Amino acid sequence: MPLKPSEISIVIADDHPMLLKGLYDELTKHNYNVVSQALQGMQALEAVLSERPDVALLDIDMPLLTGFDVVKMAKEKGVLTKFIVLSFHKESEYVAQAKSLQIEGYLLKEDSFFEIERCIQTVLSGKTCFSKSFDTKAIIDAEDELGKLKLLTPSETLILKKIANQNSTNAIAEQLSVSSRTIEKHRSNIIEKLGLKQVNTKLSNWAMTNKVIILAL
């Protein structure tokens, strides 16, 4: 049986004060229990850790910590909160990051409040909820990206994580006590397995774009 809005504790976070106020007003008008608000990621994380709400509605693009950072760090602390991220981003790499962090819900800021309510009830029932506005292809592409990453060996995964953290080939070789040639060989294998065209896409750029996914492996 669905919980009544007044029984659901919620933390909300968005670095745009007007958007945050609008979300707060809609939630409270519909009797939801908003226990804390935040204008940046660090405040959001502190609120989630202290309040342990049933649901956290988080903007992705926030200063200090992104919504994805907040989710990752909160989950590492064992928080059982259900997370719904809100964004203008429809690109598959964002969907992939959400899926890699096992985020329960992903809504677009263009979605109606009805969709937010539907998503809250869906995630509280133990299911995932992605905006109906998402192109099915974006979700399939995101799942494909995650599938490719699972093809990497433990050594390749370790190296890719170091690349995502902006370590150079020489620095990685020194850290792992191997030759730079060995790291270059691993890089070539990673590029091939991920289906990246070396002439068009630098692995370091791809790794930075998909850093959250990679570091969650």
UniProtKB/TrEMBL annotation:
Q: In which domain of life is the source organism classified?
A: Bacteria
What Gene Ontology biological process does one annotation of this record name? phosphorelay signal transduction system
| UniProt keyword DNA-binding, yes or no | yes
Q: What is the protein name given in its UniProt record?
A: DNA-binding response regulator
Q: Which Pfam families match?
A: GerE, Response_reg
Q: Where is the Response regulatory domain?
A: 9-124
Q: What InterPro entries does this protein's entry cite?
A: CheY-like_superfamily, EvgA-like, NreC/VraR/RcsB-like_REC, Sig_transdc_resp-reg_C-effctor, Sig_transdc_resp-reg_receiver, Tscrpt_reg_LuxR_C
**Keyword Nucleus applies:** no
Q: Which residues form the HTH luxR-type domain?
A: 145-211
Q: What is the lineage of its organism?
A: Bacteria, Pseudomonadati, Bacteroidota, Flavobacteriia, Flavobacteriales
Q: Which UniProt keywords apply?
A: DNA-binding, Phosphoprotein
One MF term from GO for this chain?
DNA binding
4-aspartylphosphate: residues carrying this PTM: 59
